[in-house]
Every structure is written in C-alpha cells, then in structure tokens.
Amino acid sequence: MTLKFEVRMPSADLIDASQNSLPVAPGSMYDMRWMLRTVFGKFALVVLITSLFAGAAVAYVLLRPAEYTAVSTLNINNLRLTLSRDDAYFAEMQFDPTFLETQIQIIGSDTVLNQALIKLGLMEPRNIDASPEEEAIWRLADAKALDKFRRALEVQRRGMSNLVSINFTAENPQYAAQVANAVSTTYLEKLDQDRSDAAETASSWLRERLQEVGPKAQIVSEALPPVNKSSIRGVFLIAAAISVGAASSVFLILTLAAIDRQVRTPEQITSIVGKPCLGLLPTLRTPGARGDRHSFAVLAAISRDDGAQLWHALRHVDATVTKADGSAAPLIVGFTSTVAGEGATTVAANFAALKMLQGQRTLLVDGQLYDSQLSRLLHAQGKEGLCDILTSGGDSHADCVIVDERTGLELLPLGNGTAEPTAQLNWSGAEVTRRLAPLFAMYDVVVIDLPPLVAMGDLQSAARVVDHFVLVVGWGQLTTDMLRAALALNPRLHTKLAGAVLNRADRSRMKRVFSPSATLFQKQAALSPA
C-alpha cells in the first residue's frame, strides 16, 4: 500500500502561535465527572468491598446472642410540708428541672447499684474485719462488677413528665426483668431510709409528717420479662453495612486516584511538558491473538489497515515537526522517552515508515547506545553502522545503511566500533557533524532513536544536531514528578521539543481515567484513511 500526500503547511509563525494558544490543563480536575468516571472505572472494587461489609454484617447477625431489655417505670415527686394556722398539709413543689436529673443520678449511683447487686447475689457484703489487702481486692472486684452492670443499665426520663424508666438489657429476659425491678425497689428503699434519717431528731408529731416530705416515688409498672428482642434488627444492620461498605470503597477509590501521580492522561502531559500532547498510541502488537510487542512487525504497524489511531497520532507529529521553508538540509527528528521501556523505538520506526509511505527518502538511525533494539529486531547486530562511521576516516558511508526487506525501512544500525559506545557518540563534536552530514544529505528525513532522558549527557549533545524532539510517554510508567524533573534536567532538549505522545493508551486503560482530550483522540479510530 502506497499513500501519497500533498500537504500545504501554514507559516512557522502561525504554527508557533497556535501551539502557544493551546489550552493547558487546569490546576484541578477533580470535578463530579472525574469522580463518577473514576468510581465507575473501579466498579468491581466497589462491589467487592461492599460484599465484604455485607458478608461481615450477615455473619454478625447470625452469630450475635439475643438481647432483651426489661423496663421498670417510676413516678417521682417532690413533696413539701406547708404549715397553716390550724394544721399542716403536704403540697407538691413547683417543677424544678434539676430535681429529676438529680434523682436519675442517684438511681445510677454506687450506693444504689451496690445494694442492688448484693440483693441479686452478684456481690458479697463488705467484711468489716477485712485486712487492707483484702479491702483493695474487694474494691477492685466491685469496680469491675459495677462497670459491667452500668453498661447494661440505662436510666432516663420519659419526655417532659415525672416518669423515669429503668432499663436493663441481658440475654435472659427473666434476668433482665429481675434486675430492673431490683434497682427500682433499692431506690425506693433508699428514699425511705433518707426520710427516716431526716425525721429522727424531730418531735413525734413532726416526725410523722417529715416522713412524707421530700422525694417520693412509686412504681408505675414493674418490669416484665420481654417477649421481643431489643437488639437492632438484622436487616437494618445489613443495610447499614452495605451503605458503609459502598461509601468506604468510593472514598478509597477517590483517595487513591487523587494521590496517584502516574502519568495517564494527555492533560497531565500538557500541563507538565508545556507542549501539546500530539495523540494516543495503542499498544502495538503483531497480528494474531497472541501478539508480541517485541517483534519487527510492530516497527511498521503504520502500514497495516487497522492502525487508524496510530496513523492519526503520527500524522499529527508529522504536521508539527517541520523544517524551515526553503531549507535544503534534511529534517532530523529525535524520539526519546523519560525512562527505558516506554516505546520510543517503536514510535520512531513507525514514524519513519509513515514518511517512507509519503514518498520521502527516510533514514532510521539507531542511536540507542544502551539498548540497540532497532538493530536487534532488524537483524543488524554485528554490522557496520553509526559507531563505525564515527571511528573511520572515510567520507562515504552509504554502504553502512541496510534496507530491511520485510518493512522496507532504511536503517543505519548502531554498529560495532572499536571504542566504547559511550565514548563515540558525541553529537556536538565538529567531527561527528562532518562525517554524518554527507550521509544525512542523501535523505529528506532522518529519524533518530535516542536514549531516554535519564541519559542527560547524550540528549544534551544530540540537541545540537536534532531539529525537533518528540517525547514518548508510556501510560502509567512514570510519575508526574519524574517527568517534570527529567525535563528540568534537559533544558536544551525542552527548547526543541515539538510535543509528546501517550503510548500504550489502549481504550480499556483510558476508561479508568477522566480525560476529555483522550475521549476526543479515541474518536480518531473511526477515521481510517481511504
């Protein structure tokens, strides 16, 4: 398949102005759409966490012991003795909001509860002749018994009335009723005892009347063994667990997404790089169900009919990396990445294949000193190449270029050389320029596969030769901090950076993130070149 293109490009000033006017991603993208997209992208995790909470609630409902709450109700009044000229009579005092609260505290006091426990046989009476050590042990045992007793006891006022409820919860309904009644009768006995003590020093006529003065209570209803369980119904617990599980999973997903620093969207690239994201590239594999990402066929995937999104992304790169009008020198484009393994080699080879399909003489140069994948995939290892040109004395090096019959690519392999590769490729040297210029002049476009940005010396050196750089960013392979630091350490490259492409941004991966730009880029897949 041969594609011919006739493209009329706008002026360089117009291109620069359009690039500078591109919108930069806003500082915060955590809006409602981002939240919904993020949660639905992890919906399976929401279901899993919610199911775990629901399962735990069901297990608790099935295994928890039954609880019954018995209620004894008291009517508490405060009487005072009123004296007249002829006689004395009793009258109920005006309502005092602190009176009932005081009585409620007395019902729950240690004195009343200790007597109730003794009456129930849960506590032994204090031994007067006990030694200090035995007294300390007795007090500690009493404190533990009272604490456990209070956790099951509840004393509260009913509305705005004078009625006070004494509630006790236990696994046995008969025991719950027995305890509630015991606390009620103990409190009544204390009131009677307090009145008797107060009237002890009065005259016989006044003593009879003083015994009716002060707080007075009567049992309105005794506690009966409850029939129904008082614990929360299981369906409510399960519903609450489902709600908490769903809310917890959503919170967890949003929190992890908010603190995720991996580069996954074009907006992140644009905001950090300061240059446009030129497109999304799918994971390139050889045809077949078990495609291989490390095969020579992926180097010319652009020539297949199923690479519409790849074609559009590289077409955008092609429209961006242009040489000055009227220049006879070849266009030199360098492809690099932040770290190794992001796919810069594959993208560079496919861009060279695109230029070749456009009818332009294109040379693909393996300048990757540390991992010569191009030479390996095209079976050019061990053959003369770039390093040999730089170490030889001749001027004609066209015979070092090999043509791969399978892809049609013209490749200048890395070569062998006689010195260490790291000492050979000093792109900024005048000798390198002199030896490569005749070979590069034979082509319209030279595409160089360069080391990653972490090889800062190599990139700074190559910036003197390369007209435009294209940064390949692997989806989720590095953090925003790493990308920002790598660009800051390569200022010379940044000035010639045309843009970036997000590699391995498959549709299934992009569904996990919220990105309007990615949504637009993915629609390119439906636009296949005729």
Write up what this structure looks like:
- It is a single chain.
- By secondary structure, the chain is an alpha/beta fold.
- It has helices spanning 12-20, 32-41, 43-63, 97-107, 110-120, 132-152, 173-198, 204-210, 234-259, 266-273, 308-320, 344-357, 373-377, 386-391, 421-424, 430-440, 456-462, 480-488, 491-495, 507-510, 516-522; strands spanning 68-83, 88-92, 153-157, 163-170, 214-221, 277-281, 331-337, 362-366, 402-403, 410-412, 445-449, 468-474, 497-503.
- It folds into two domains: 12-25 and 265-526, Rossmann fold, CATH 3.40.50.300; 68-221, Bacterial polysaccharide co-polymerase-like.
- The strands form two sheets. Strands 6-13-12-7-11-8-10-9 form an eight-stranded mixed beta sheet, with helices on both faces. Strands 1, 2, 3, 4 and 5 form a five-stranded antiparallel beta sheet that branches.
- Strand 9 (402-403) and strand 10 form a beta hairpin.
State the main characteristics.
530 residues; alpha/beta; Rossmann fold; Bacterial polysaccharide co-polymerase-like; 2 domains; five-stranded antiparallel sheet; 21 helices; 13 strands; 16% strand; rod-shaped
